[in-house]
Design goal:
Layout: H1 16-24, E1 29-32, H2 42-50, E2 58-65, E3 68-75, E4 79-80, H3 82-88, E5 94-96, H4 99-106, E6 123-127, E7 136-142, E8 145-149, H5 151-158, E9 161-163, E10 166-167
Amino acid sequence: MAKKPRKQQPQSGGTPATVALTAAGVPYEVHSYDHDPAHPSYGEEAAEAMGVSPDRVFKTLVADVDGALTVAVVPVAGQLDLKALAAAVGGKRAAMADPTLAERTTGYVRGGISPLGQRKRLRTVVDDSASAHATICVSAGRRGLEVELSPQDLATLTEAVLAPIGRA
């Protein structure tokens, strides 16, 4: 099977996420759009701007599961089920992480947190609905920048667990 061609970004436009993908030799495509700070949802804005179904665009959320930061990757069309996330990593209780702590730990700003190329590798859970798609889009590490790749490559690179952690 032929690998999908990459849309290379100029050196100055690279992010830790795209650098990690390039270093791993994973096929990916970068999509950029003009971010509107007034838009109420980063993920829905990305889906609309790219003309991609919200079921294929995934948001990256950081939660605290029993005192450990954990990344949850779920479709923008739904919400994160915190109890399911805790169960997926063998935890008892989950809550959304403090945004400042999430930004400091991942090295990304809210609305641009990527599951790839984080400053500190966090355990990651990807909603199992991702496997229904040949490719999905996740943040490339900056508002207005998404990366499209196979869910299998995302799971491999982040050492993610696939579990039903999203809900409609």
